[in-house]
Amino acid sequence: MKPLSTEEVAKTIGVSKSTLERWLSEGKIRVPKPLRVGRKIFRFWTDRDIERVMRYKEKCYWKGRGRKKKPKR
Prior knowledge:
The longest helix has 14 residues, at 47-60. This protein has a two-stranded antiparallel ribbon with strand order 1-2. By secondary structure, the protein is of the alpha+beta class. It has one domain. It has helices at residues 6-13, 17-25, 47-60, and strands at 33-37, 40-44. The mean pLDDT is 84. Helix content is 42%, strand content 14%. The protein is elongated and about 55 Å long.
């Protein structure tokens, strides 16, 4: 399989690119192997990385079900 971009991975699993970027920056999912092309660095998403993101999404993603309720003070 050819390497996928972050945007393509987001479409594949059914979330927006900004959601996927947020999960990466917050450390909720592990950042895939970087691939350097000239001066630019790209993420090299493998099938294994995509499966890991899909498992996280099934476990923790709440889209369409509303926000998690905050505990009352």
